[in-house]
Amino acid sequence: MTAFGKLQCSAKLIVPALILAHSQIASGFEIGIGDWQAHGFVSQGYTYTSGNNFFGNSRNDGSFDFREIGINVAGNVYPNLLIAAQGLYRDAGGSDTDNFRLDFANLDYQYPINNESTVGIRLGRIKNPFGLYNDTRDVVWTRPSVTLPQSIYFDALALRQAMISSDGGLIYGRHTFGNHTLSAEFVTANPLDNTGGATEFLTGLSDAPGKMTGRPLFIGRAGYQWKEGRFRLLFSIVDLNRDFKSSSSTVPSGNVKTTYPLASAQINLEKWSFTAEYGQVMTKRSESLSRGIPLDMTSESFYVQSEYRFAPDWTALLRFDAFFADIHDRSGKKMAQMTGLPKHMFFSRDITFGLRWTFAKNFMVAADYHRVHGTGWLSPADNPDLLRGSGGDPNWDLVTVMFSYRF
After folding, report:
1. What is the fold, at CATH topology level, of the domain defined by 3-406?
2. Which of 142, 165, 367, 383 is the most exposed place for a label (fewest CB within 10 A)?
């Protein structure tokens, strides 16, 4: 069956099922205890690539190995004490094989100081406050496109679960004066860096038998917004210092220190939104983990994006997204000489065109087309040939389509 034929078949199966569900479910469930509510979503995606693989075996006929199903509950046990939790089933090919997981579950106590200022604390499995989209990335409805900019939010590198949440505590504060609002959040928590491909990413080892240990993760985010989000500025930073304890006599243990500062800006007008984020991942590995790569390395990531709401139910998107494994070697030539791998493995440049349509209440279909040069953020789990000399196709196309229902 051709890729288009598979897509038609999937649409014929998914859309009627979602319409049937919509006839039975209103906007959220009242649980019947105080103000407690349950919400959920079902999303099925399709990916097609002209070269390389993305979220499954997407070359040639494409892949349906991209789905997200979640349900969350939230409610107040006391006026200022909220409990919230979300369970998720997610499948994204080789880059996410954890399937069922607890996305977040926490207690949130909020204390209003006065009419302008509030402080609070959140404990449990908390969403990490990072950038514009990390703590709202769990459902396609709150993402600007089917996939987030991969230079900043590393889904394809199997880092989604490690980035989205951690186990610990968060303190936060918010102060409003006139049309201006200042906010600050600080996290200290145990990172979920033994999930997915986080261990491989941090150590630089393609097969890392062992686990990460060490001190807690620190995350900070400070923000300013004008007129309730008309204009937003954020600065986020992640500080990670972890020890890799190898379980194999042939693979050494070692230490990894990572600092990830990220600057974010967004303007929201009536029909237009303009967004940009810029970050650098500064990594220091112990000599035992060198394996042919620099011990001290800084990568660069950024994107610029525009969204246009040209009709009540339609939004178009245009984005340029770039990633460079070494900020001092944007062409990848030095890294290629050092590792013997093709230079296009050490960068990616991605031009994305997106379109989304809310075709009925609580129903949406979104589609993105990517023209990509480089394979810097592709997953070896989906592309084993990346590390076998070829480095994959340097110039390739990616199409992602997702049907989604929420309640």
Report:
1. Porin (2.40.160)
2. 142
